[in-house]
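Recap quiz, item 2
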Amino acid sequence: MDSSVSVHVSRPPSTPFLPSIRFHNRIAFRRRSVEFVLGRRSPSTSLKLRRTEVRASCISSRGRSENFDLHDIPHLTDYIPDLPSYPSQLQNVPAYAILKKQFIGPDDMVAKKIVVQGSGDRGIYYRRAGPRERVYFKSDEVRACIVTCGGLCPGINTVIREIVYGLNYMYGVDDILGIQGGYRGFYSKNTINLTPKVVNDIHKRGGTLLQTSRGGHDTQKIVDNIQDRMINQVYIIGGDGTQRGAALIAKEVERRGLQVSVAGIPKTIDNDIVVIDKSFGFDTAVEEAQRAINAAHVEVESVENGIGIVKLMGRYSGFIAVFATLASRDVDCCLIPESPFYLEGHGGLFQFVEKRLKEHGHIVIVVAEGAGQDYVAQSMNATVEKDASGNKLLLDVGPWLSQQIKDHLTKVRKMTVNMKYIDPTYMVRAIPSNASDNIYCTLLAHSAVHGAMAGFTGFTVGPVNNRHAYIPISHVTERTNTVKLTDRMWARLLASTNQPSFIHNDELIKEDVDLNGAADAVDYKKIGSTST
Ligand SMILES: Nc1ncnc2c1ncn2[C@@H]1O[C@H](COP(=O)(O)OP(=O)(O)OP(=O)(O)O)[C@@H](O)[C@H]1O
Ligand SMILES: O=P(O)(O)OC[C@H]1O[C@](O)(CO)[C@@H](O)[C@@H]1O
Ligand SMILES: [Mg+2]
């Protein structure tokens, strides 16, 4: 918690010893016997409180009292009340023993919203990630497993490595299994033993040592297998779909009353997971995308009327395209799933391309793979297909867009153009993570290990306003993180590229005039409202 904020434990008349923290965790409400200490500032308020009965009042440095909500995560003692705990093994790890603050306190929280208005609510808080003073597993009792699901992402191997190293070096755990080939690997494949030696240099390679897959999530079979193999810590690395699967596993584990901690580590190249600041591997992917954009720029600069189109990943969220565009400054136009575009007529893409070619002699367009899907589907008359996980398979917007632009300029406008289409989609995610992503992966892995050892379960780890937190899985799966057209980042991009916003404007319908004054019959209202 911010050091300028003091926690004051008040004693409202009807609920004795209730500080004003509201706990949002149905399981926690059932955990009547679990106690923790609050209010270290004043010994008189250092009370052992039942978590179910906690209300705290938070007094800002300006002396005003405000409420805040802790959205808590489940703990094994929620359903195994008599579970014994032990002093953390970290006490004996020299590197940690000398730390000023060796353990995270029970009242340490991370604010979801960092910018607050003076009069507003203090908002939602999450439990701060990190080592706890007491753990619920002895080193030689732990049998952990790691599984990776969904698409690839730079840094997966680093997370695997750091979970293994973290468990081994910090907590003395040496029984760690690798589940091969995603969720279905639990029940259809053999495991591999993961030791520091086995994973030592895997962070230098892209992909996942454990292999991955889509589909195949069968909660009952997976938990049967967890039980059969006597696994008691499950580390699940994957995107939104994977986290939904992790939540189901945690729920089933709880229903069976098993002492099994389930920890989710969010992985998404699209950066489409909400709450966390950014997903690991995203920066690496953006960096790699720069290389493709640069190649396109070099190519189109060197020819007459060069048009470079670079297709980047981004199923429903155009973050890679947006960040790569902003970073590069060589991009004239960025098309993302969140911003429907149209080709013909005033304010359309054809007009913009022609204008840029006349002004600069070349143009670079970045298109996210999920952009304009309805548009492409209409023109191709295609049917919707899905992958094994139920995700819609995208139509290939890149070649379609290249062809549309080329046909329009050469056949309708009678221009000579040089089209250079570059598709580095898999290249941006099949590489090892860069330096900063590697460090980020280490923190994620260690947070997950600390959380599981401390007996937490059914949580996802991730940075929230730059502080690692334990987040209820439902918070990261309830919606998808997308580029907000009303946020400053998109405005910055539009200001940087000076591209059309493609936002429908009734005025445009009246002034439907193209570059040379010829009228185009386009139903802007219809096209402008096409959602992807
Ligand atoms: N709603 C769900 N409930 C249970 N399991 C799910 C659910 N959605 C997806 N899964 C499982 O999670 C795994 C990965 O899902 P998916 O292929 O959607 O990738 P993801 O985790 O979202 O990663 P990404 O989209 O970033 O590649 C698959 O094994 C799939 O069966
Ligand atoms: O071809 P695959 O492996 O199913 O993955 C493709 C998809 O995975 C992602 O990288 C992540 O969901 C998307 O951007 C992309 O559409
Ligand atoms: Mg997904």
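The pocket of 6-O-phosphono-beta-D-fructofuranose (ligand 2) is lined by residues 151, 239, 269-270, 313-315, 369, 387, 394, 429 (CB under 6 Å).
The CA atoms of residues 223 and 252 lie 7 Å apart.
End of item.
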